[in-house]
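tool=predict chain=A
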Amino acid sequence: MFKNSFFVLTLCCSAHLVKAQQIGIHSHNDYQQNVPFWTAYKNGLNSIEIDVFLKYNTLYVTHSESEIIAERTIENLYLNPIKNEILYSWNPDKKLQLLIDIKSETQVTLNKLVQTLNQYPELIDQRKISIVISGNRPDPKEYSNYPDYILFDYQSLDPLKNEEIWNKIALISLSFKKFSNWNGKGKMTEKYYRKVDSVVRIAHQYGKPFRFWATPDTKTAWELFRKLGIDYINTDQPAQASAYFNKAPQ
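tool=predict ok
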């Protein structure tokens, strides 16, 4: 199924690739797409979310243990396809962020992830792929214990005074619902707009890319987030978001 779908995606979506990369689009819960990785990648998205759960010494791509499917491992769905793409078809200008959301116990899962990634030298080349850990993360004081290619998602606006820790932060992510209940339809109220705009401005003062999660997923919302300067726009509709931003004025 994946091979046939990939062929169709390649024909239909390759024209979107260059322009869509100009906008930071994040494929939220990417594993839930009919074709994980390829739908986002071939539509030019530059950030992909991968939920992982460690079970029986295997990293399964899933939100929870109860949803594990045997063949859906991080290697099958993501690492091997990305490796092959890098070896044979990678655009040298392409940058891709893998936001790996750890759902099982932090330490053993992250250790297994590092062990697995070390078998893929093509992927840990930071000029191409940015590996960012989200979800269950270690204490920030431990960040420097991990390889240089492992970075972290910072989910706070509180400043970090330790420069070594700060250098291990790839981006800042916060829940949109903490600041607004706007549903992405009609106009956001002035009260919520000021609050959301303030959050984005504060985050950017730290010099890091910014992302909201739990966002409304409509064209109206995408356009507002673009105008607010949000660096990675969250979506569960990678093809539609890519098509929208390819047509939207820059």
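The mean pLDDT is 91. Residues 143 and 165 are 6 Å apart (CA to CA).
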